[in-house]
User: Fold this.
Amino acid sequence: MSETSVTPLKQPKPVVRNDSDVKALKPRQSAFHAEVPDAKGLRLKIKPNGSKLWEVVAKGPNGQAKTRSLGSFPEVTFKHAIPKALKAFQEIKEGIRNPPIFNRDFC
Assistant:
């Protein structure tokens, strides 16, 4: 009888729609991303140590994917991450390499 390898099922990507959803996410053995619907390129990276980081992913003018960090949760809330993401997404698309540093008073 031959041995068959069993591949573990992948967990579905979580979706984040508000701060409560973000707080409910628990860390796993490896880092993973939660999607944010209706926000271009915005995602939340959850690390094994429990830290949660907002990121934007977009293609620059040369077609290469770029990732830009927007800050960590809870310092940057869901409400504040959306406008930051829209601005960062546009800057990446336009090829702006060194954006101004985001601050908490952005929104």
